[in-house]
Amino acid sequence: MAIDPVKSVCSGPFHSVAITVKGALWSWGCNAGGRLGHGDEVARYLPTAVASIAELKVKQVAAGLDCTLIIDADGFIWTAGQLNPDNERSSLTFARLRCCPEAKNFT
C-alpha cells in the first residue's frame, strides 16, 4: 500500500509517527506496550498504517517515551501505549481519553 503525501511527522525516543494529508496515521519503530497503536507489540521497521483508527481524521500527533497521542478532527484526544510509566495499564490500540475537569469554587 502506498502512503499518501505526509503533512506532519513526529519522533519519540523509540518510535515515529506520521500524519498524511488525508488525516491517516502511520507509525513505526519499537512497539513495547503497544505505543504504535496496531493492537499488538510487534516492532514495525517501515511506516505502517494504523488500521484501528482508519475512520478518524488525525490533525495532530505526539510521540512520547511509551505512548502516542493524537487529536482528531473533532478535537478528541486518543492514546495508545502507556501514558504513565508507574502505571502498568497500557492500550495496544488507540482509546479515546476521557477528560473530566474538576469544578473549583474560588471564594
Description of the molecule:
- With 107 residues, the chain is an all-beta fold.
- It is built from no helices and eight strands.
- The protein has a four-stranded antiparallel sheet with strand order 1-2-3-4, with no helix packed on it. Strands 5-6-7-8 form a four-stranded antiparallel sheet, with no helix packed on it.
- The radius of gyration is 14 Å and the shape is globular.
- It starts with 5 loop residues before the first strand and ends in an 11-residue tail after the last strand.
- The model has no long low-confidence stretch (mean pLDDT 88).
General shape: globular
Strand order of the largest sheet: 1-2-3-4
Summarize model confidence as the mean pLDDT: 88
Q: Would you report the number of β strands?
A: 8
- What string gives the helices and strands in order? EEEEEEEE
**Percentage of β-strand residues:** 35-45%
Largest sheet: 4 strands, antiparallel
Broad structural category = mainly beta
The amount of helix comes to under 10%
Q: If you compute it from the alpha carbons, what radius of gyration comes out, rounded to the nearest whole angstrom?
A: 14 Å
Number of helices: 0
Spans of at least 5 consecutive residues whose pLDDT stays below 50 are none
Distance between the termini: 59 Å
Summarize this entry quickly.
This protein has no helices and 8 strands. It is an all-beta fold. It is globular and about 35 Å long.
Task: Fill in the keyword field for this structure.
four-stranded antiparallel beta sheet; single chain; globular; 107 residues; mainly beta
